[in-house]
Amino acid sequence: MSWEDSVRKVVPYVAGEQPKQKDVIKLNTNECPYPPAPAVAKLAENLDTDAFRLYPDPDTTPIVTALAEYYGVKKEQVFVGVGSDDVISMAFLTFFNNEKPILFPDVTYSFYDVWADLYHIPYKTVALKDDWSIDVEGFKQENGGVIFPNPNAPTGLYMDLEYVEEIIKANPDVVVMVDEAYIDFGGKSALPLLEKYDNLLVIQTFSKSRAMAGLRIGFCIGNEKLIKYLNDVKFSFNSYTMNRPSQALGAAAVQDDAYFKEITGKIIATREWTKKELTRLGFTFPDSKANFIFASHKSVPAADIFNYLRQQNIYVRYWNKDRINNSLRITIGTDSQMQLLIAALEAYLG
């Protein structure tokens, strides 16, 4: 017997490429094209670096308090982690502790199956419909838990709250997680449903609409009992999951609501312009309510377009996987970045 026989082996999640050169148009990882709020920059200039020698607040009080006030919930209903990936991973470990398979869409955020394999959680995928929408009926089978993004990724499609509630209502005996990484770009959050369902966990992130992917801040809001169970697992894993700068700067970002609404409005407007231009060039795509578009061309393979754009130092996301291997996920950048993208596509497609 070898020591390798005892190793926990998994196929890891593959993050979007992070090019080292500076002169690129980076539209492949759904980052915000605008800087964080001015209040964040101001506070960053005056951080108490002497305090870095001390452990951070394990309860992440500054950011928990800011989020509770912003969303009108109790502090005991908020859990904060190192990006929404950390929050979801911790939630998988806490709530998906069942021999029955958990359910999530077959075309969705590709970290879900990685966490399931890592924690030895059985799972089944529910196939999206031909129009890329989530099949609500598929989530009414017996299961050990449910998770789905809204809007979904990488399709960008938003599901109306009545259908979200239909899934929650059909699964009263398990935890239902709604991953709202992109909700600020379109649609309504499931947060109001928390008043009706104590098994609902709503997860969001600062990485997209709050322009703070580099600080790794995510959170979820749910029933007080759910959050207590999450914290019990967190403190059994690592008490100090979020550093001091992230706690302080994250709180500042939440408090600058005007800037948050300004940049999300800009991204939405640019997205709608880009949809029209891509349609003109022969692309089709689901009607995205996220900060990206999931596009296929009528005649040119996605892989060819991906490789061409990369040669032009324009990075978009491509997966060579079943069902999605002829689509590109294009993050919405600034107006000038998207104009350059469209110009490059015009030159290539003729």
Structural class: alpha/beta
Query: What share of the residues does DSSP label as strand, in percent?
Result: 5-15%
Strand order of the largest sheet: 2-8-7-6-5
Give me the strand/helix succession. EHHEHEHEEHEEEHHHEEHEEEH
Radius of gyration: 21 Å
Shape: globular
Q: Number of helix segments?
A: 10
Helicity, as a percent range: 25-40%
Q: Summarize the main sheet.
A: 5 strands, mixed
Mean pLDDT: 96
Describe this structure as you would to a colleague.
The protein is an alpha/beta fold and 350 residues long. 35% of the residues lie in helices and 14% in strands. It has 10 helices and 13 strands. A hairpin with a 7-residue loop joins strand 9 (283-284) and strand 10. Helix 3 packs across helix 6 (224-237). It is globular and about 60 Å long.
What characteristics describe this protein?
single chain, 350 residues, alpha/beta, 4-stranded antiparallel beta sheet, 10 helices
Any chance you could write out the topology, listing elements then pairs?
Elements: E1 25-26, H1 38-45, H2 61-71, E2 78-81, H3 83-95, E3 102-105, H4 112-118, E4 123-126, E5 146-149, H5 161-169, E6 176-179, E7 200-205, E8 218-222, H6 224-237, H7 244-255, H8 257-280, E9 283-284, E10 292-297, H9 302-311, E11 314-315, E12 317-318, E13 328-331, H10 335-349
Parallel strand pairs: 1-11, 3-4, 5-6, 6-7
Antiparallel strand pairs: 2-8, 7-8, 9-10, 10-13, 12-13
Helix pairs in contact: 1-7, 2-7, 3-6, 8-10
